[in-house]
Amino acid sequence: DAPEANQKEVSVLGGNLFLIDGLISDAGVSSREKAAEIGLFDVSTLQEPYRVEGKKTMGYEIAEQLDWELPDNIIYPTGGGTGIVGMWKAFQEMEELEWISSKRPKMFAVQAENCAPIVRAFENGDEFAQPWENATTLAAGIRVPSAIGDYLILKAIRESGGSAITVSDDEMTDMTDLIGKLEGFFVCPEGAATACGAKKLIENGSINPSEKTLLLNTGSGLKYLDMLP
Question: What is the pLDDT of residue 205?
């Protein structure tokens, strides 16, 4: 299910592309087996420290660009969830450094309605998220049926007083078009999902329109030219 743009990038940059019949979770299993077989280093989600440390920089940049006062709410498109985990870690570190106060934003995870293991676990009060069967969504970045760091994502959401919400593919594509027309940004479906989520969270009273709410767009719509209508 890898987007065509991603496949072409691998080829153009001289990489070896191996396609398997399945989702990102299946690719992860195959990668770990191959790594063990020929002695490769596994860089998949949360199998090494560097990705969380990299995602953590979002938290530092948010604080710096907002004059060291965090927003009231952060809405993040959630697949593997390292973005939420990394930002939450950054906020703790900055408080220990006395760069920010103890105030924390509410963290909201947005998932596709046909691939929502974190939302289901949050609503059920579970510590861990069970794998989502037959996951489908055009947003490849959140088409993750089983998140390795599920318990860390859920812990951050609950500690912050936030929640998790689903949106449909149709809502994402409509919002991609609306954001482009109103703001001049060609966001990816995952980024559009955060705007859809914001609308729903305002409607259900989870977010007050007067609050400072940050939406994170995680990529370009150019990655989805073969999929968007």
Answer: 96
